[in-house]
Amino acid sequence: MESGGLDGTAETPHTAGTGNETLSTQSPSSEFSLGVLVLLAFLMVLLALVTILGNILVILAFIMDRNLRHRSNYFFLNLAISDFAVGAFCMPLYIPYSLTGKWYLGRGICKLWLVMDYLLCTASVFNIVLISYDRFLSVTKAVSYRAQQGITSNPVVKMVAIWVFAFLLYCPAILFWEHVAGHSVVAADQCYAEFFDNWYFLLCASTLEFFVPLLSVAYFNMHIFHDIQRRQRHGSTQDCEPPRSSSLSWRFCFLPRPGVFSVEGSREFRCIKPLCASPAILQETKKSSICSYFLREKYAAAGPGEDVCSSPSGSNTA
């Protein structure tokens, strides 16, 4: 009984040692000369510095310029934070490990590096999907999208959700896999995830981390491309959706066709005016509705006092 336990214990290090010997014989330090290793190290360090400096510029620009603090740029900030952490923490620890083929920093730092590496890379992928989805909404639902520009709680919730989902995908497995399995398959001088050889887990995780984001980004961008093409063919018309929290009873408003002028020489707007219940609501609609705001911003050159939703004949239908 005791000898069997000793035999079973001896087999695991032997297997791990065999795999470790294979990794060691295939490490770059044995395959490449010293000059090639120095060149590779220089290029890796340069790539890490470019990653750090580039993302620092993005973060500083967002902090210092208040005009950049609108909805879509919050997602770019989230992406810059994750990429900055990759360049500042993950890449410096990976450079000596990739060049020597051995891990010298201990098991605790190895676990921390793996958690950060998988978390940050997965968060970057999810941030790209979120940016594509945000662009998708800005094109397909432009007016309602613009109405929510000043609301910061919505993007912040999505940013936090990105990090939570990214953590749940890999990090619990990295931290607890060996405790559930009862033993570790990673050698003392190596650092990789315990599930590295488990293709069931890798297939499921890769589907959620790679294939689903790939199909989502492809769908969003193809939809944006076809929507822009359709607008170019049929003219730049777009629905103004009513806000859900408003009591105004207007229905639709379409963007005017550019380059159209009336007989008197003033710009003509093809727009269905808001249908309001009372003159007071009509006045409020002219000042603050999504439709009026969007048209005033788009056609500020229409002249003072001119109604942005004037009829094709130039008369006011209000």
Automatic annotation (TrEMBL):
PROSITE patterns: G_PROTEIN_RECEP_F1_1 (PS00237), G_PROTEIN_RECEP_F1_2 (PS50262). It holds the Pfam family 7tm_1. InterPro entries: GPCR_Rhodpsn, GPCR_Rhodpsn_7TM, Histamine_H3_rcpt. GO terms for cellular component: dendrite; plasma membrane; synapse. Residues 15-27 have a biased composition (Polar residues). It is a multi-pass membrane protein. GO terms for molecular function: G protein-coupled acetylcholine receptor activity; G protein-coupled serotonin receptor activity; histamine receptor activity. Keywords: Cell membrane, G-protein coupled receptor, Membrane, Phosphoprotein, Receptor, Transducer, Transmembrane, Transmembrane helix. It is found in: Cell membrane. The keyword Transmembrane helix applies. Residues 54-318 form the G-protein coupled receptors family 1 profile domain. Residues 1-27 are annotated as: Disordered. GO terms for biological process: adenylate cyclase-inhibiting G protein-coupled acetylcholine receptor signaling pathway; G protein-coupled receptor signaling pathway, coupled to cyclic nucleotide second messenger. The chain crosses the membrane at residues 32-63, 75-95, 115-136, 156-177, 199-222. It comes from the Eukaryota. PANTHER family: 5-HYDROXYTRYPTAMINE RECEPTOR, HISTAMINE H4 RECEPTOR. Belongs to the G-protein coupled receptor 1 family. This is G-protein coupled receptors family 1 profile domain-containing protein.
